[in-house]
Amino acid sequence: QVHLVESGGGSVLAGDSLRLSCAVSGDSFNVQAVAWFRQGPGKEREYVARITWIGFNTYYASSVKGRFTVSRDNPGNTAYLQMNNLKVEDSGVYYCYSEGNWGQGTQVIVSA
Predict the structure, then answer these.
(1) In sequence order, what are the residues at sequence separation of 6 or more whose Cβ sits closer than 8 angstroms to the Cβ of residue 36?
(2) Going by DSSP bridges, is the β-strand pair 10-13/68-72 parallel, antiparallel, or unpaired?
(3) CB contact burial 63-83 (16+ within 10 A = b; e otherwise)
(4) pLDDT tens sequence across 5-28
(5) pLDDT for position 74
(6) 85-95 confidence digits (pLDDT tens)
(7) Which residues contact 108 (CB under 8 A, 6 or more apart)?
(8) 37, 46 in Cβ contact below 8 A?
(9) What is the rounded CA–CA span in Å between residue 26 and residue 47?
(10) CA distance 4 to 21
(11) Helix (H, G, I), strand (E, B) or coil at 89
């Protein structure tokens, strides 16, 4: 089983940046990719970005493309989500996901 722990959330102003981290442990050798999702107040959880663990290929939702960058350390087992030019609508709890496992989430609040 893969264990995921997010960190790095906080409260910022619109236009600011944040970097989220997702530490991967457990059966990390089985990890094919790590994805980021978010859930805003009163909204459904939505896909944000994904990185393949071996090939480092990255994919983004259209709402964040050009502002967010997903990466991972190498060597190591941490995924990152660099979020620039944050908007109020980016607020929510951000989760990482891999191989059927979710982290506990980290909250991001963006104020105007």
Answers:
(1) 20, 22, 47, 48, 49, 50, 70, 79, 81, 94, 95, 96, 97
(2) unpaired
(3) ebeeebbbebeeeebbbbbeb
(4) 999 999 999 999 999 999 999 888
(5) 83
(6) 999 999 999 99
(7) 9, 10, 12, 18, 20, 38, 83, 86, 90, 91, 92, 93, 94
(8) yes
(9) 23
(10) 10
(11) helix
Give the DSSP per-residue string, 95-111.
EEEETTEE---EEEEEE
Could you tell me if 102 and 95 are in contact, meaning their C-beta atoms sit under 8 angstroms apart? Answer: yes
Give, as one character, the DSSP assignment of residue 64.
T
Please state, in angstroms and rounded to a whole number, the distance separating the CA atoms of residues 111 and 90: 10
- For residues 106 and 7, the answer to whether their CB atoms sit within 8 Å is yes
Residue pointed to by tokens 């989220």: 20
CA distance 74 to 63: 27
